[in-house]
């Protein structure tokens, strides 16, 4: 086995890594919260969220609060498992064990 096994390409981009990091420590995050925390544009964030959704690593919940649309994101069980595996692989790579 090589030392880069279990590194997941879905988390390669810094924005996807940031999204997953935020969602791993919070029950959910709203679109605007992620946008502010990661300092990204709407379109950029949306495309990375869509990539994570396609892999079934995040859930999307759309609702209205009053008359305003609200979108929340959370990590799926699969996403949590795969992200932890990715972080463990990075730690292993860095420590070269």
Automatic annotation (TrEMBL):
<feature type="domain" description="Winged helix DNA-binding">
    <location>
        <begin position="15"/>
        <end position="94"/>
    </location>
</feature>
<dbReference type="Pfam" id="PF13601">
    <property type="entry name" value="HTH_34"/>
</dbReference>
<dbReference type="InterPro" id="IPR036388">
    <property type="entry name" value="WH-like_DNA-bd_sf"/>
</dbReference>
<protein>
    <submittedName>
        <fullName>Transcriptional regulator</fullName>
    </submittedName>
</protein>
<dbReference type="InterPro" id="IPR027395">
    <property type="entry name" value="WH_DNA-bd_dom"/>
</dbReference>
<dbReference type="InterPro" id="IPR036390">
    <property type="entry name" value="WH_DNA-bd_sf"/>
</dbReference>
């Amino acid at each position: 086995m090589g030392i880069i096994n279990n590194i997941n390409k879905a988390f390669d981009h810094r924005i996807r890594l940031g999204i997953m990091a935020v969602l791993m420590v919070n029950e959910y995050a709203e679109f605007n919260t992620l946008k502010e925390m990661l300092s990204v544009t709407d379109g950029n964030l949306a495309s990375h969220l869509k990539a994570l959704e396609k892999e079934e690593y995040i859930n999307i919940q759309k609702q209205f609060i009053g008359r305003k649309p609200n979108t929340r994101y959370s990590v799926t069980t699969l996403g949590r498992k795969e992200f932890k595996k990715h972080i463990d692989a990075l730690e292993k790579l860095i420590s070269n064990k």
